[in-house]
Amino acid sequence: MRWRGERESDNVEDSRGMSGGGKLAIGGGLGTIIIVVVGLLMGKSPTNILGDVMNNKAQQSSGYEQTTTVDPNDSTTKMVRVILASTEDVWSDVFNQAGATYQKPKLRIFSGSEETACGQGSRAMGPFYCPADAKVYIDLSFCEELRTKFKAPGNFAVAYVIAHEVGHHIQNLMGTSEKVQQLRGRLSEAQYNKYSVALELQADFYAGVWANRAQKMRNILEPGDLETALTAANAIGDDKLQSEAQGYVVPDAFTHGTSQQRMYWFKRGYQTGDLNQGNTFKELGLAN
Ligand SMILES: [Zn+2]
What we know:
Layout: E1 12-14, H1 22-41, H2 46-67, H3 75-97, E2 106-110, E3 113-116, E4 119-122, E5 128-130, E6 135-139, H4 141-148, H5 155-174, H6 176-183, H7 189-218, H8 225-235, H9 238-246, H10 259-272
The structure holds zinc ion (ZN).
Zinc ion is lined by residues 164, 168, 200, 203.
């Protein structure tokens, strides 16, 4: 993907290397309570527990000092800002054409774990979108995981993942996520899962629409980029993730769709660039 020299978004927040403040207080407070409770359960004396707590605090603060060495302008961070800027340009254009204004999401880079309006986020969850604060969250170690764990090397794999999360923001703005949310509790878990899958596949479709339009706007694609995105879509489908985790596949527990489905919808978005082609809910009878 050709990205150097392109516009960088102002909507990227970076919580890595923050001096601590509230974050440390929350971590320390909760940690202290847990240590004290566990200590008492294990029959430790209060003095010993206090010692543990002090050690724990010392370890935590040295950990925070390390994070301050993060370079907020390293090349991955700059690239993430360029990718977000490109989604802003594309979706602003799409919304303008429909006579509306695109409300841009924030993207928050964090390290390890992060407090969000949707609860505690962590690196292990992979990148995610929180509708309640309209933010995309990403721990950049995921970019490395795409290369190593998911065997999807190349910058465009990262772009696909961010465009997918922005796709969830589009669903939030369009009210699609809310419609699906309202069905929760009225449907069995297996039925509701089908709607969750449709949401995920539509976010892939939107990522494809972004790629189509970003290419027309700024000519960002390089040979092999599309394959890179498809490799990522293939690698992080739920069937792959589940079979790796459990050794078998449980269709009812799918929330992202199979690798095949993810590739199909991303491709469809990329080939058409047309929002009207993205009704992944059709078979479920929910209007898009
Ligand atoms: Zn998703």
